[in-house]
Specification:
With about 375 residues, the chain is an alpha/beta fold. Helix content is about 65%, strand content about 15%. The chain has a three-stranded mixed β-sheet with strand order 1-2-3, covered by helices on one side. A three-stranded mixed β-sheet has the order 4-5-6. The radius of gyration is 29 Å and the shape is elongated. It is a multi-pass membrane protein.
């Protein structure tokens, strides 16, 4: 994403937050009037939910504003994770509001009071549903317009449609209580509060995942592999690692296997071309690590083929890399890394014994040293590719 596109994304996010702020203030006012007029705790719970949504809009504006600040001495990778932090604050507010009104709803259950019949209350609640549905569609439209998906805006969209549904349930309960005289206001308020609490917990988990780091998008990984496979010079690649510092701030590293007979200048040129292609296609800063592979050693090629055949007898998705025969003629050692599929249940120690035993049946002249990796990203990519 270009700097202009990023600025447009932030501008769109701030405008979205401002529109949400205005609408939620109107909704808060409408629901407070309706709740106080009807004497209904469930409607007041819904009003406080709108108060939480108002605070969410404030944090949305602040999150997008801070995320656009350039990198500085204290934050060399920029400030885009501020968008995730704003989402976490929003979730905490939702959770606090939910707990507060759960207690009030429980008190209403044990101390029931009749609600007051009012056509104005029904009218105000219907208006609030229409406003919230309209706001949800507005968030959806804004999200599609953004160059990169915003989890914050998507969460606001989902919350808006959920709020409209909750208000519809409250209207139904209000009508039932007036019509039949059943004291269900407290129960409905408790139900709405529990739903708010659940939404808060889910939002906290989602925001925490973004801050902790989640699995990269599988389709993106597949596209990256297609780009790496499109270059003829590299023999292979491994250890593709992706580091995300915000929706549009992504870095990656990869080990690129190059024929050791190429000059350093030739090998460097190949890695430069791959890094430039990644930035062009994905706007990702890729750092390629040169991994020279010896192809003109008959003994090494023989052992390499042996290791490959042994691993393939265990599982089709077993892979290995960084294969080396180290040392001199007097003392040589075999070294390589094995990528273990996540559905393999054996421990590293068990696998080490099994692999070395099978290799030694065919070749036992050198000691074997193995490192084990369990690549959850690669496993998911292979499943989708199959």
């Amino acid at each position: 994403m270009s700097k202009f596109e990023q600025e447009e994304r932030v501008k769109s996010g701030i405008q979205t937050g401002f529109i949400g702020l205005v609408v939620n203030i109107v909704l808060l006012t409408i629901k407070l009037i309706a709740g106080l007029t009807a004497g209904s705790v469930s409607i007041l719970v819904d009003a406080m939910n709108s108060l939480g949504d108002t605070a969410s809009s404030f944090f949305t504006i602040g999150g997008f504003y801070v995320s656009n600040k350039p990198a500085d001495r204290e934050h060399p990778y920029g400030h885009q994770r501020a968008e995730y932090i704003s989402g976490l604050f929003i979730a905490i507010i939702i959770l606090i509001v939910g707990f507060q009104f759960l207690l009030q709803s429980i008190n209403r259950i044990f101390n029931p009071m009749s609600v007051y019949s009012s056509g104005l209350v029904l009218l105000l609640l219907i208006i609030s549903i229409l406003l919230k549905i309209g706001l949800g569609f507005y968030y959806q439209h804004r999200s599609k317009q953004m160059a990169t998906q915003s989890n914050t805006v998507l969460a606001l969209k989902k919350d808006s449609f959920n709020d409209a549904l909750m208000t519809l349930v409250i209207i139904a309960s209000y009508y039932i209580e007036i019509k039949f005289g059943w004291y269900i206001d407290g129960y409905v308020g408790a139900g709405v509060a529990l739903f708010i609490i659940y939404s808060g917990f889910r939002s906290i988990l989602d925001s925490s995942d973004d801050l902790l780091g989640t699995r990269p998008d599988v389709q993106m990984i597949l596209r990256m592999r297609e780009v790496l496979d499109s270059f003829e010079t590299p023999i292979g690649y491994h250890d593709l690692l992706i580091h995300k510092y915000g929706p549009n701030k992504v870095f990656a590293t990869v080990d690129i296997e190059i024929d050791s007979r190429l000059s350093l200048i030739q090998a460097h040129r190949v890695i430069d071309e791959i890094e430039q292609e990644f930035e062009k296609q994905f706007n990702i800063k890729l750092v390629g690590h040169l991994d020279p592979i010896i192809l003109d050693d008959e003994e090494q090629n023989k052992i390499y083929a042996l290791v490959k055949n042994v691993l393939k007898t265990y599982h089709s998705n077993f892979h290995f890399h960084d294969f080396r025969i180290k040392g001199n003629d007097e003392k040589k050692e075999i070294h390589f890394d094995v990528v273990v599929p996540t559905d393999v249940v054996e421990t590293d120690q068990e696998l080490h014994y099994k692999i070395t035993s099978d290799i030694y049946r065919e070749f036992n002249e050198y000691p074997i040293y193995i490192k084990f990796d369990r690549d959850y990203i690669l496993d998911e990519v292979n499943k989708n590719k199959d």
